[in-house]
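User: My collaborator sent over this chain with a note saying "see what the structure looks like." That's all I know about it. Can you take a look?
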Amino acid sequence: MIAWSIEAAQKSNCFDRVVVSTDDAEIAEVAERCGASVPFLRPGELSDDHTGTVPVIRHGIEWFQQAGERVEKVCCLYATAPFVSPDDILKGLAALDDEAVDYAFSVTSYAFPIQRAIRITGQNRVEMFDSQYFNTRSQDLEEAYHDAGQFYWGRAQAWLQEKMIFGAGSEPVILPRHRVQDIDTPEDWVRAEWMFKAMWAQDGHGS
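Assistant: Without extra context I'll predict from the sequence alone. Here is the result:
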């Protein structure tokens, strides 16, 4: 799966280097076979299920700085985003032309108004998160967006200072929902396979 992300990065033609950060020797081998570089293995303290994206990117930037390389703009491209496109990556980079922008990352809209969301209680009943919107028409509610989980462009200083990505210094790159599928669970994988088949057929490759 990581091959799709590496290929998208290469086709964007905007990177000096495509680097994979991993602690896994097998993933490192696959990455190098796909044309990416793995100049270091990620330390164990940054390789558990609770480590955030920002510390991992900070580690990579600091590694290159210690090696004497200048780093200005860095894009974190997730390996679990097989539908990322080179054009969208370039849009994120272009957003950093604005000096006031620290980060630019992919977002997509929710399919249903989040203001009318409900929860299932411990008694297997339902309740609204915010009941004031029960009688509000869906079309009258503000559209909401969520992180598409594909890529995060940022200035090196923003990563090093661990500035918040979801903040006023970030610019969104809006993607259509049909091209967004982060893969975390077996259900996500099945949905991604169906999405891939549909897009493959649409591009003229047959079913």
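A starting point for your reply to your collaborator: Helices lie at 2-12, 25-33, 53-66, 86-95, 156-160, 186-205.
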